[in-house]
Structure formats: C-alpha cells, structure tokens
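Q: Got a minute? One more chain.
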Amino acid sequence: MSKIDNFEDLFCHELSDLMNAETQLTKALKDMAAAASDPTLKKGFETHLKETEDQIEKIKKAFASVEMEPEKVTCEAMKGLIKEGKEAIDEFEEGPLRDCALIIAAQKVEHYEIAGYGSVCALAEKLGFDEAKEILGSILDQEKATDEKLTEAAMNINEDAASFAEAAE
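A: Always. Here it is, folded:
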C-alpha cells in the first residue's frame, strides 16, 4: 500500500476503517446480547445491532455521495475492543457483574466510534463533502445516544452488581 498523501485518500481510508469496524461489530453485538442478563441491556444490544446494520448502509451512501469505493482494510482497533468484550463474557459468570463488564466493553467501542465519526465528519467538512458529512453526522449522533443509554443502564446495573457482590461475600 502506498502512503496516504492527501485529504481525499485519508477520508476514504478512515471511512473504510469505520465500515470494517461496524461490520465486525455486528457479530459481537449478537454475542453481547446473548450474554447479557439484564433484559434492558439485552434489548439495547439488539437495538444497537439493527442501528449498526443501518449504519453500514449509511456509510455505503456516504461513499457513493463522494464517488469513492471503500478500501479493503481491517480495523485492528475494533478487533481489540471486540476481544475485550469476549473476555468479559468468558471471565464473568452470568449476572449483573458480567452485565457491568459488558457495558464497559460496549462504552469503549462507542467512544472509539465517536472519535472516528467525529474525525471523518471534520474531514468531510474540510473537503466540502456536505452530503457525506450529513450522513456521517447522523451516525455520530446515534453513537452518542447509544453511549448515553449505556451510561443510564450502568446506573441501575451497577447497583444490582454491588448488591450481588455483597450477598456473595
């Protein structure tokens, strides 16, 4: 691969990376939903899976709006974040403590995505890719909303996990 030396190629590369990240995330969200004990958390993961599938379609529209094709890249960062989520499933017994670990793993993913979409929105603005910026900005808003929902869920689940841990002692 040659070195990236302009904003257009940087935009294409970063957006391709996000598309791969979202694609990887679809399987992980299925696993996280299956591993969650709390019904609200389980439903949240299922809802975010549908949003993620929709986001992949939006990314394709963003590419089409600027007449670019996605590169074949693997998002190594998402690979690592998903690995951490899998470790949460494997290392904790089913219950509120695992749910807390799942929320932590999910919020790490959301924060990564928020950073990524914020960056490609800034690049799209710099390049005058108004339609792409609007599309990607809508995904950024969804990621921020998901992060807020996870924070709300954590408030309740953390209390359950603390009670569960105290009862186990």
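A: The chain is about 85% helix and 0% strand.
Q: Perfect, thanks.
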